[in-house]
Amino acid sequence: MYEDKTLVCKECGQEFVFTAGEQEFYAERGFQNEPQRCKACRDARKAASRGPREYFTATCAACGGEARVPFEPKSDRPVYCSDCFARMRGEQQ
Which segments constitute the CxxC-x17-CxxC domain (predicted)? Predict the structure, then answer.
């Protein structure tokens, strides 16, 4: 029913393919307009609107090392560094 279409990105001017699967997805969601930007330009636009992520420094509850986390640590909850957190997740599975 749907066929791949080649479109031109309004941001960078490069051609990109609007696949039959993407067209079906758009139709299922009720989207009436075709995409105007390629995936790279859409992703860049999303990233620019979010802004940089803020990180906080805390002491790891397991090893005592430095832990950088994307949330403000609370004193009543333990915080773990990336290595200790990964190790704990591996033990649970």
Answer: 53-89
